[in-house]
Amino acid sequence: MNRKHRTKNPNNNKLMLAFHFLRALARINKSTSTVSSYQRSCIIKRAAYASMAHAAGPRRAWSRALLYRLRRGSSRLHALPAIRRTRSFSHKRVKVASPKLREPNQADVLRRLVPGGEAMELSSLLKETAHYIQCLSAQVWLMQNVVGSITS
Amino acid sequence: MDPPSLVSQVPVPEMWQFPPVGVPPSGPRVGRMVPGPEVAAVGNRDASLDESTVTEQSGGSRGRRKRRDSASEDESSKLASTSSGNDLTDSEVKRLKVIKSTNETSNLKMEAEASSGICNKTMNQNPPPTEPAKQDYIHVRARRGQATDSHSLAERARREKISERMKILQDLVPGCNKVIGKASVLDEIINYIQALQRQVEFLSMKLEAVNSRINAGIEGFPTKDFGAQTYDTASSLAFSTQPAREYGQGSATEWLHMQVGGAFERVT
Question: In chain A, what residues touch B172 (CB-CB under 8 Å)?
């Protein structure tokens, strides 16, 4: 049923995002009462990313990569740890830098930021980035609303 | 940097007004150009002249203009290649040259707008157009003096695709329209993504704090804050009703209520 609703129209994407995230929040609220607050915030963050990826569906490369990363249980999800990591393996792996891009570094930074974008060619990377930005901003919007509705 | 103020400036709901990125209205037609009426009419000079003037006026829709231009270029290059080998009269050849020169002017302008420098390089190489491009399914311009072998055609198509997607991204990222240059656009995009990711992190921390405070309050005063409701139903309602109402989608909202309720009962 979820799958059917997911692919119907783009607005449903947002709805599915809300559904997944709220369900995950309810689950977290139920289960984890003994762990520390930092761990709980990490769990909530993971739930946010997982619900985002679930709502985006399995067709997107970034959502697949994100889910894989979450399932593997790597704690370093995003921004700053990712930069640290890639500095370590940038000498191992030679990227195919497109010749016409003046700064190949920026494309590489983008590749690191978008999950699953490491092996991507530039045009598909840009496509994935656009969708990822949409979903991420929707997630931020949703979380802000949830926080606002709880505090008010 | 203050994350909540940053994102509250961002017009997030408007982003969803854009079509889904997978199927942009003009995006997937890069590879296979369907020859429209203007392609059929491109043989005579007036039509192509009209086209160039029209496209010069429409500064806003660059993708469309590129498509049109390249359609006419394809046609002209094909004609040129046939004219080199076949039996066209002199006047026809001259006319073709005129067409191509008008195309050249508009192309030069377009090239100045395109941020990649390879177009100039391939033009300076100036190889003779030996073979006609495969105009059936590849929609790439092959101007006079441009390389028409399959590699450069594919490269040109790829570049066009990239710039189109960059344009989509520029529309998505706020404040990115004023930025000129591919590098700075990419910078903006990177900054925006990082800001959003930090925002998610911050909000999850905030959510946790708020949540634990509510939990503590409920444990302290079990029935005072939420009336007769128990803690579980109260928290689920607090999560589910408010955002769902903001989506405002009629039956879909009811469906969400039903789903959240059912899922919650399953969880409990």
Answer: 130, 133-134
CB B145 within 8 A of CB B126: yes
- Give the ipTM: 0.75
Give residues 67 to 126 of B whose Cβ lies within 8 Å of A: 116-118
Would residue A142 count as lying in a domain?
yes
The verdict on B198 touching A (C-beta cutoff 8 Å) is yes
Contacts 24+ apart (CB under 8 A), B3-7: B3/B195, B3/B198, B3/B199, B3/B202, B3/B203, B4/A144, B4/B199, B4/B202, B6/B195, B6/B199, B7/A137, B7/A140, B7/A141, B7/A144, B7/B195, B7/B196, B7/B199
Which pLDDT tens digit goes with each residue over B78-99?
A: 444 444 444 444 555 445 454 5
Residues of B in contact with A15 (CB under 8 A): 247, 249, 252, 256
- Which residue type sits at A93? R
Exposure string for B122-134, b = 16+ CB within 10 A, e = fewer: bbeeeeebeebbe
Determine the pLDDT at residue B48.
Answer: 42
Residue A23: give the domain boundaries.
12-77+114-151
Chain A closest-CA separation from residue B61 CA (Å): 19
Provide the number of structural domains found in chain A: 1
Structure tokens at B175: 């404040």
Q: Which residues of chain A neighbour B205 with C-beta distances below 8 Å?
A: 41, 44
Q: What tokens does A89 get?
A: 């393996």
Q: Judge whether A28 lies within some domain.
A: yes
pLDDT single digits (tens) A68-102: 888 887 555 543 444 444 444 445 455 555 555 45
Q: Which residue has the tokens 């980035």?
A: A129
Q: Is B4 on the interface with A (CB under 8 A)?
A: yes
Say if A60 falls within a structural domain. Answer: yes
B29: CB partners within 8 A, 6+ apart: B67, B139
- Does residue B196 have a pLDDT over 80? yes
**Structural domain contains residue A97:** no
Of B182, B189, B207, the CB nearest to A143: B207
| Mutation to test the B interface, candidates A6, A11, A29, most B Cβ within 10 Å | A29
For residue B43, the 8-state DSSP code is: G
